Amino acid sequence: MFINTNILSLLVAAIALALLGSCRHGEHALCNPEYDTDHAGYLSAELMWDEYDDILIPIDDVRLTIADGGNVLKNKQFTTPLAVAEYVQQLPSGNYDALAAVNMSEARGYLLTTDNTKNTVNNLPVTCVSLKDPLAKHTQSWFAVANATVSDGSLTVAQLSLKRLLASLSVTIKGAPDGTTADIAILHTAQSVNLATATPSTDESAQNPVAMLPVERLLLMPTAAAQPRTMLILNIATPGGTPQQCTLDAPRMDIGKIYSMELEYNDLDVYLYITSTPITDWEEYWTISGEIFNPD
């Protein structure tokens, strides 16, 4: 669901117009003219959320990149969405792409790297994000790309629709004997994601995330681009100490999507082929091939 309320849009527009007025009078520090005002305009950014549940999550780090694929490359960092809304950048008239990376700071366990090479899809430089420690617990982050045209003497608002970066996985086992323990390892997760193009790397993470079951909302990098499916290794120990290992051949995990799976203990085998049933555009339920899933 796309979130863009009239009140929020009007507020952002009002802030942008007020700041444009102050720019024209030299009152705003970010708008000191850098370019010939006869052939320049202004660009501001509006952060919006694809998912309603994300709106109230605290934001303390926003990286904004604006590029035309040629001579113009602007990088700014903010600590609040309001600071982003207050930002107005003077730019030569022309076509630009903007990238927002939200809550991807090192303090939150992320690493952002930028290559000066322009990617093949838009004007933005190659900008990749990875996890400092794939085995650690992570909080969600968001990103967005928007295209905007700046015209002589006018203000353009780039609307950045924020999408979740990390995939989310929930796994439970039903019917297991009391005292049974289990953990699950997720293979083939991507080393990084190119935010400018929203594509996972072909390289895989050197470390496979592992979680004790049951696990709810384990946040992970999506499946590496070179892999058609995700492999999960389930290790189980019964109260008597008998080990059992199951390989789960599951669908790909895509950027920002939610996946959940309930396994019956008596159905576990050495190899299980997992299929998916869509619940919403961003959520899937995984079942053993041949099992019927009734969401009601």
Q: How big a fraction of the residues is strand? A: over 45%
As for the number of domains, it is 2
The coarse silhouette is elongated
The counted number of beta strands is 20
Would you state the CATH class of the largest domain? Answer: Mainly Beta
- Rg result: 23 Å
Structural class: mainly beta
Oligomer: single chain
How are helices and strands ordered from N to C?
A: HEEEHEEEEEEEEEEEEEEEEE
Number of helices: 2
* Mean of pLDDT: 88
Helix content: under 10%
Describe the largest sheet. 9 strands, mixed
Assign the CATH topology of the largest domain: Immunoglobulin-like
End-to-end CA span: 21 Å
Q: Uncertain runs with pLDDT below 50, 5 residues or more? A: 1-13, 24-30, 292-296
CATH architecture of the largest domain: Sandwich
Instruction: Strand order, main sheet: write it out.
Output: 14-11-16-17-19-20-18-10-15
Compose a concise summary of this entry.
With 296 residues, the chain is mainly β. The protein has helices at 6-24, 81-86, and strands at residues 40-49, 62-67, 73-78, 88-92, 94-102, 110-118, 125-131, 142-150, 155-164, 167-174, 181-187, 193-194, 199-200, 210-212, 215-220, 229-237, 243-251, 258-264, 271-280, 283-288.
List keywords for this structure.
296 residues, mainly beta, Immunoglobulin-like, seven-stranded mixed β-sheet, 20 strands, disordered N terminus, disordered C terminus
Could you characterize the architecture of this molecule?
The structure is a single chain. By secondary structure, the chain is mainly beta. The chain has 2 domains: 159 residues, Immunoglobulin-like (Sandwich); 122 residues, Immunoglobulin-like (Sandwich), CATH 2.60.40. Helices cover 8% and strands 47% of the residues. It contains 2 helices and 20 strands. Strands 14-11-16-17-19-20-18-10-15 form a 9-stranded mixed sheet, with no helix packed on it. It has a 7-stranded mixed sheet with strand order 3-2-5-8-9-1-4. A hairpin with a 5-residue loop joins β2 and β3. The longest helix has 19 residues. The N terminus and C terminus are likely disordered.
